[in-house]
Every structure is written in C-alpha cells, then in structure tokens.
Amino acid sequence: MSRQSGRANRAMEKFSQATTARAGSTAAFVAAVALIVVWLVSGPFFHFSDTWQLVINTTTTIVTFLMVFLIQRSQNKDARAMELKLNELIAALEGASNGMIDVESLSEQELKVLHQHFKKLVSMARHDASLTESHSVEEAEERHRRKTRGSRARRRSTSAA
Predict the structure, then answer these.
(1) Are residues 9 and 47 in the same domain?
(2) Do residues 58 and 10 share a domain?
C-alpha cells in the first residue's frame, strides 16, 4: 500500500468514525426531526408541489445511501475487533477449544453442525450440578458417559440387593 493511499484510508477511517458517532447522537435525531418539521411547514408555501416533495425525497435518499456505507464500514471494523478479542480469550484460556478461533470462516453448514454440538453441551450441562462444570463438548460427553455408567451400576447394585 502506498503512503498516499494509507493516508487516505486513515482519513476515511477517522471521517467514518466521527460521522457514525455523530449520526447516532440525540442531536442528529433532533436535527432530522427538525428538518422534517421545516419541510412539512413549508408545504403550503410551495403549494405541496412536486418539487417540494422531490426535495425531501432526494435529500433522504442521498443521506441514506451514504450512511449505509459509513455504518457498514464502522460495523466491519467493530466486528473484526470483537473477533480478535474473543480469539485472544480463547487462545489464553486453558481448556478452551482453539478450534473456535476463526470460527467465522466456517461455512454455514459447518456452523450449523457446531451449533448442534453446543446445544448438546447445554442439554448435558443442565443435568450437572453447575452449568460451569463442562469446558468442551468432548469433555461434557465423556463426563456424561461416566455419570451414566456410574448411575447404571448403582441401579443394578440396588436392584440386586
């Protein structure tokens, strides 16, 4: 990346952050409502003409069009930052599955399979004394098998007695 495009990118990033922060403020909402009120009040002066309607339609279309790109850019950056933070936590926690790092690159089908595994984990964890006892699907499945074997053995010994 050239130095000039790097500067342009940083400038665009700063502009994007500042604009989305301001656009989401109470002052921006009040200004938008005020603009609509001014437009409505001006209607009788312009005899509710086609030009009068075109002004608000064009203004709102342009603002919406530009804001879509600014908001998407801001959300992309926020999502990437959140992914990195979560990846750091996964990498740092003993017992956490490093396979979950970069999980967002999996296909939809792979994510569905993973979701089913976690649903299974939750189902098994509900039978545990504490929801925090299991760390991974594999560990939960093994713990569940051990518990099931133990409870079967206890039932057999009590029914034999």
Answers:
(1) yes
(2) yes
